[in-house]
Design goal:
The complex is a heterodimer of chains A (221) and B (646).
Chain A: H1 4-18, H2 22-27, H3 31-42, H4 44-59, H5 69-84, E1 86-87, H6 92-97, E2 107-108, H7 111-115, H8 119-122, H9 148-155
Antiparallel strand pairs in A: 1-2
Helix pairs in contact in A: 3-4, 4-5
Chain B: E1 3-5, E2 14-20, H1 24-35, E3 40-43, H2 53-65, E4 89-92, E5 95-98, E6 103-104, H3 139-143, H4 153-167, H5 173-179, H6 198-207, E7 211-214, E8 219-222, E9 225-227, H7 240-243, H8 279-284, E10 290-293, E11 296-303, E12 309-317, E13 325-337, H9 341-351, E14 369-375, E15 391-395, E16 410-415, H10 420-423, H11 427-434, H12 451-463, E17 465-472, E18 481-483, E19 499-501, H13 506-526, E20 529-530, E21 545-550, E22 553-558, E23 592-594, H14 609-631
Parallel strand pairs in B: 1-10, 2-3, 2-13, 3-10, 6-19, 13-23
Antiparallel strand pairs in B: 4-5, 7-8, 9-15, 11-12, 12-13, 14-17, 14-20, 15-16, 16-17, 18-19, 21-22
Helix pairs in contact in B: 1-14, 4-14, 11-12
Classes of the chains: A mainly alpha (221), B alpha/beta (646).
Chain lengths: 221, 646
Amino acid sequence: MATANEIQEFVTLCVPLTGFAEYDLHGTGMAGLYLDTARRQVGALPFQAFLTAWKQAVAQHKGPGALTPVNREVARAVTYLWYTGAWPRIAPAAHAELRRQMANTEFVASPEAYAEGLVWRAFGAHPAGAKPPGFGTWSMKPAPLPGVEEIRSAIGVAEGTYRTAVSEELSIADLPPYLLPGRAPARDCAPSAVPRAGDAQEPHTAGSQQNGDEQNGGTTA
Amino acid sequence: MTTTTDGHNADRRRYDVIIVGAGWAGSLLADRLGRQGWDVLMLEAGNGGTETWPGYLDSLDTFYSAVAKVPNAAYRGNAAAPSPDVLDLGSDANGWFGNGYFVQNGRLPYSTDYVRARGGAGMHWLGAMPRMHPDDFRTRSQYGYGLDWPLTAPELEPYWALAERLMGVAGDAEEQRGLGVIGDPYYRYPMHEIPPSYIDEYLRTRLDGRKIEDEVAGEEFPLHVTKLPQARNSTPDRTYDHGEGYRPQGAVGLPNYGERCVGNSSCVPICPVQAKSSPLRLQAGLADSVTLVTRCVVTRVLTGRDNYVRGVEYRAYGDPATPVSEPYTAEADMVVLAAHAIENAKLLLASGLANRSDQVGRHLMDHPTVLAWALSAAGDGPIGPFRGPGHTSGLECFRFGDARRKRAPFRIEIGNWGWGWATGAPMSNVAAALGLGGAKDGSVLGLGTFGPELRALVGSVVGRQLQLQIAVEQPANPRNRVTIDPQRHRDAMGNPRPILTYDLDDHTKDGAFAARKVAQRIFAQLGAEDHSDYSAHDGVLPVGHFTHTVHGQTLDLVFHGAGHGAGTHVMGKDPTKSVVDPWQRTHDHPNLYAVGCGSMPSLGTSNPTVTMAALALRSAEQIHRDLVALHRPVTAGTRQGEQVNR
């Protein structure tokens, strides 16, 4: 079990990963469970190494691009856990390098964790099946969502870039397809295993391998 | 209060009626027959537990804990009475394959599920209650495809109304009358309509009155966003029933708790507050003469003298995880199979009954469903997906008219739950935006977003998700069928597994093709960016993929199951061409009924539950008359009434 100090440090370090304020992260009531889950999944020593590396990156106003590939994948898994309440399937290379003995499959950390997922808040909704907003609320016009700058200033991470390899600001109107999920090949496909809508043309990023997969996806003839 | 007991206590007793299955059809029958004082035994193959509040909350936790939030996600697996699951299907470079309960040997997968548990598929259903159109009952004579019914819409109208009362429907009768599906000029639903979603409104303001071309039909159709009648608690209509009003039913297992739909947005698989109607409600109010038994798998219908049946053989089990079970028998004057279209066919085949026509198991149908998904224009801001019931409105114009000669008709559901069905959103959006899971070679990706960029990106792309779920009519085809092979394919308890042979015919595929093209035009009209994808990736085709050519143009298409299994003990007047008569009584056995969607000769483009319920209520009247006749001194005359018992 994580101590209160460890949980506090974990939450502080998760603010720049998730884009949610410390208050929001504590408010889920899940911080201790997530820290324990991540430690168990990654291994205590490798997870401590990740936290140390990430702490250093944050202190130097660097983003996750400064992390090694394995630590970057751990950062993604931890963020996914905060957003969905589930530990994801991670990149097989990271799974192998961490020498994990458990299956590399997605699982929900706890029933309560599902309902505390941050993803629902990110688009202004409630978790499906919990925290219902009341009769007829689905007819109301959704409130506008905060932009990147608003989020940055609200959570106090004004410096640094949190795009790991995209150099310029993302255009919401013209998103690269690799940032969107594609069609699930079957219903028995965990959300973290759903293929991306398009393959990323990886620029030469430190620590990442070039992948020469051809572009596919998109609509059919 | 009805008696709930175990299989041992029901053994060797004699009942007036045995009902196999405690889903919607069985529960409606038990409700009616119990009220008339008949001794009824309901045998449910699956587990109970959801009738208590802690048991229901446990199902909710099961849903929360499930990685894939599919229709069976709230209901645990059961080796003694296995259920088919949409998770059973997959695909690889060799094509699609099925694991699990069904054995599939058709050209295309039957990707529809059901739940063998107390309440049946009435636990995970959405609650959609649209009636069928009068034309849907005569597609053969009017449009040259499928099978005609031996019944008409006006004959079913009073039973639809009764079903809507007993199940508790909220809807806009005026709008449904405009579609031609309600004949009674004064009819009102028990409750005012469930409010349409913001997405419905977004589409209505941009689509209503516009015409959309369907090149397969060679016609333009005027669009009108129409609200869906739903078995979901809303505001009661005080003018209902000549001013008597309507009192909605609350939750089962928690006294004095019940409310209108509060927008949990998880109707499928489970409504946390039970605002969505389920068979548990009827079961809670059954007469004392009804005994409900769970964990009793009926293995055979027992034959008696002449063509009569005398009861059933069933196996009771204690632990759903193990196949250990004890055999028992129960006898009755009437046996009613209400176990789902596929289970009814399986049981008739295993018993060697009611199949003089060789039609048992044939005409397996569903609503093949084409998904189309898009992002609404960024400038319009978020449209509010994942809020409210799964779908609250649809586009109905492609359901009716002479276009049905050229292609199967279809109903466009306007989805309220974003890209959830198609892509696993919103969770999969988080994974994709993070760059989680690695490249195809397994290496860790460099690309991806975190922090403020991640939150803004996910907010924007999930907030604009639009999905159309287009249910296409599939006509009865004797080659689509359920068979059994007890020597080769058995479940853990030793009962035969259903073997399914399934395909789509060209008329249906023409409808799916038209549906896809229409969806593209609707997205273009909305200024939305179409993200639908039906093609192969890395040489692997998705489950449900087919290609189809119309007017020289070939499209990749993908269909999903709608959970609307039907047709397997088809109704007709001719005993050589059908299994049950218009009362759902088997032609071959005067005291054996097979009820449910299996009796339906066609489905139209309506979710079939309300029509299945109407048929069950109509059968309840005939079963009552049959029982009265059996118990009457032989000298008394008979008089057949057509009154609906309310």
